[in-house]
Task: structure prediction
Amino acid sequence: MDFQWYPGHMTKAKRMMQENMKLIDIMIELVDARIPLSSRNPDVDQLAAGKYRLILLNKSDMADERVTAQWEEYFKSKGFFVAKTNSKAGKGVKATQNIIMEACKEKLERDKKRGIKNRPIRAMIAGIPNVGKSTFINSLVGRACTKTGNKPGVTKGKQWIKLNKNIELLDTPGILWPKFEDQMVGLRLALIGSIRDEILNQDEMALELICYLKEHYPSILSDRYDVEESEDKVKILESIAINRNCKLKGDELDYTKASKILLEEFRNGKLGKISLEIPEVEEA
Ligand code: G4P
Result:
């Protein structure tokens, strides 16, 4: 498995984020709730040093609620404010405004002490591609937004979206890049469909998914495809091919078709709410 993110692209995205960092109080980072670590680039911690931080576990409608609750605790224990959202359905989205205020409480109190009134909190949304940044912004802003760009004192070209009298949002999200140093990161991103399928071998991906589901979500495979989960992964894929009548000419089984069906049904949520990453319990 070999992934490349254009270095030029990466440098440009990073520079833009660095420039914008000066303008904001709080960094709102979106991650995919099914793979919260694999869908973030930890370099953002350096980039956003000194800023208030909010992590949104987006697409929480597709993740295992029990595991998502563990992730909430995990990020809180690292000092982040955390919320879970389903931007597609607008769930938890508006409530983030209160969390933003809560996260920036210190700054608001400082402003108050200094007699500074009505200085809005400025926020930036960031995340790797496909985590739902645009969907979240659209859901948050709705139609009632007012753009407040090009006023004196506002950096030229920067557009701020006024969410309410207290919060303004930079209208272009910061783009982070995935961190592919660990092969599993690429695999997880591909499994949820955030990396183009052609890059990875479908059969290999399906076999990896089978192993993971067998271990962490017993009976999902047997219920849906009538397979015997105690069998090895290749045998299970074979049974899925039989169950779904995936055949090549001459009645030979079509493993690739069976793999595609499994991956597609996983991504469409037909296998249920599944998280592919579970936080490691840190020794006390
Ligand atoms: P980006 O800006 O970070 O690149 O992501 P974008 O908003 O384009 O969202 C990527 C895909 O994820 C979209 O699906 C979007 O609908 C979906 N999405 C975003 N947030 C959520 C969420 O909370 N839950 C679920 N289930 N899906 C979410 P798409 O397949 O590209 O388009 P479509 O299916 O909406 O037509």
Q: What stands out?
A: Residues 149-155 have pLDDT under 50 and may be disordered. The domain at 8-171 is CATH 3.40.50.300 (Rossmann fold). Residues 6 and 177 are 10 Å apart (CA to CA).
